[in-house]
Amino acid sequence: MNTTQRLATLNRIRKLSRLMDTSIRIPGLGFRIGLDPIIGLIPGFGDVIDTAFSGYLIFLATRFKLPTSVLGWMVFNIMFEGILGTVPLIGDIFDAFYKSNIRNLKLLEDHLKNTEPELSKSDPMDLSSVEKIAV
């Protein structure tokens, strides 16, 4: 992939991660949630849908040829949230606070900062989009 394609993939991961974890601001509280805890409320299928969607984000991240240690942490974040998310109601509250997709985005951006400085120069967010999100 060339730099333009890499940035397009990174931006797709950013948008989808924010959609799932921080897209909705709760008025008065200043706290943000995404679709993840809302979809998780669907009995039986919600957590499966959330985990599959997060798996798709990891699939996109593999295009950056991540080392197994980074991929391992990403999978851990998804599985941890997926397993705890199956507990009715308490799991959905946990989903709202844990934000596994944003955690994985941070892992990806940190890795790219260290391994691909040329991508950082081309990225308007300087590979620091997670720090710019009010979580």
TrEMBL record:
The chain crosses the membrane at residues 38-59, 71-98. Keywords: Membrane, Transmembrane, Transmembrane helix. InterPro entries: DUF4112. Pfam families: DUF4112. It comes from the Bacteria. This is DUF4112 domain-containing protein. It comes from Planktothrix serta PCC 8927.
